[in-house]
Amino acid sequence: MRRPLPRRTLVTAAAALAGALALAGCSDSGPDSGSSKAELSVSGPYMPQPVSADMAAGFLTITNRGGTEDELTAVTSDVADQVTMHSTMGGAMQEKSSFSIPAHGQLVFKSGGNHLMFDKLKRKPKQGQTVTLKLTFTKSGPLTVEMPVKSATYNPSTGH
């Protein structure tokens, strides 16, 4: 014959089960559930080898797989005194202090569009080298990116 469990054991087991169920209800188990915070990653970074001794451009894509928008507020680099962010619309370039990265979306920096400008280069990066960037966001922690220097005529859609 089985002996009944003490009341204290039952209460502890019930509390543990309730806690586990509460956590399961908050889990991120579904394929489309997404996180309630920003989840940022960087892909395709590159810098065309600069033709000028004091200025260069940079391009990359920031993807946000999370459920909250974030904002890129600053970019710094070991190779330049200053890195500025620019948008290009209708052929006109305008400096921006920040860029939004929508939830479940992307921020694309590409030739002819949004881009980074490296001003007052400390050294002129050459093809085959890498440049280190630090991206700063409103909500997420900073991201460090290694940006390869490509040929001056590099086009990511053709690979050259």
What does this molecule look like?
This protein is mainly beta. It is 12% helix and 46% strand. It is built from 1 helix and 10 strands; from the N terminus they run αββββββββββ. It has one helix spanning 7-25; strands at residues 40-48, 55-64, 70-77, 80-89, 92-96, 99-101, 105-109, 115-121, 130-137, 143-150. Strands 1, 2, 3, 4, 5, 6, 7, 8, 9 and 10 form a 10-stranded mixed sheet that branches. Strand 4 and strand 5 (92-96) form a beta hairpin. The longest helix has 19 residues, at 7-25. It is globular, with a radius of gyration of 24 Å. The N and C termini lie far apart (79 Å). Residues 9-33 have low confidence and may be disordered.
Give a brief outline of the structure:
This protein is 12% helix and 46% strand. With 160 residues, it is mainly beta.
